[in-house]
Design brief:
single chain; alpha/beta; 7-stranded parallel sheet
């Protein structure tokens, strides 16, 4: 097999949640640019439409609130109705309420766990039969530094992302024999809508950069290679793994 074929996504159908902003939007654009048919999924229809208008390739939109667990089967069907059952599922949608442990409410806890943890599982559960029928599929979850590190005001988010790491291993155990691999990307500090409060504090952003081995915070382009690796044939024998794309933050 030629090296370029290992990363070739032409003929593949990809669903990317959280495609309206941040790293989800970057992932949706990157997969479309790599030849996949991409369905972008997010709550904000206007932001999704803006993404599509700025993106080359074969793309479509599904506006949905993924924090509503009861609606996920219908959302999965709407996604499959666009181009057919997806080959690739990127679970990038997420929320971080940044509340101190003393201030977390049941409502905010449930919102965080539903969007960050339940939605990736139940969407994957709904899409795996289509992948199994093809004998090939890719599930890429978004973990976090907080999958393994405790940060201030991050108890609900950290709990969800720690669970995403284990969810990824459990998905791999359940479905890899059917040709469906499951892996996770754990980004370091990237400037996105979700991390805007961090980057609004220049001293804090610099402190995080200094914590890395490479001496800077992440740029979206830093995620491209790892993302395409997990999506393509290059990762055929890789499953149940979490790749920290953090400039060495967790190495120190």
């Amino acid at each position: 097999m030629q090296a370029e074929a290992l990363f070739d996504l032409r003929g593949k159908i990809a669903c990317v949640t959280g495609a309206s902003s941040g790293l989800g939007r970057f992932a949706a654009t990157a997969l479309a640019g790599s030849g996949a048919q991409v369905i972008g999924v997010a709550r904000r229809a206007g932001s999704l439409a803006a993404w599509r208008s700025e993106t080359d390739g074969d793309t479509a939109l599904v506006a949905a609130d993924l924090s509503d667990r009861t609606g996920l089967p219908e959302v999965a069907q709407r996604i499959a109705d666009v181009f057919g059952p997806p080959d690739i599922l990127i679970n990038a949608a997420g929320v971080n309420t940044r509340q101190h442990a003393d201030a977390v409410t049941p409502e905010m806890w449930d919102l965080t766990q539903n969007l960050n943890l339940a939605a990736p599982f139940f969407l994957a559960q709904a899409m795996v039969p289509g992948m199994r029928a093809k004998g090939w599929g890719r599930i890429i979850n978004f973990a976090s530094l907080q999958s393994r590190r405790a940060f201030a005001n991050g108890i609900a988010y950290g709990a969800s992302k720690g669970a995403v790491e284990q969810l990824t291993r459990a998905m791999a155990e359940a479905w890899s024999r059917d040709g469906v691999t499951a892996n996770a990307l754990a980004p370091g500090f990237f400037r996105t809508e979700l991390t805007a409060p961090v980057f609004a504090d220049a001293a804090l952003a610099r402190r995080h950069a200094n914590q890395t081995c490479v001496g800077r915070n992440g740029e979206p382009r830093d995620l491209l290679g790892p993302l395409l690796f997990f999506c393509g044939r290059a990762s055929d024998y890789v499953t149940g793994q979490v790749l920290f794309v953090d400039g060495g933050f967790t190495a120190k």
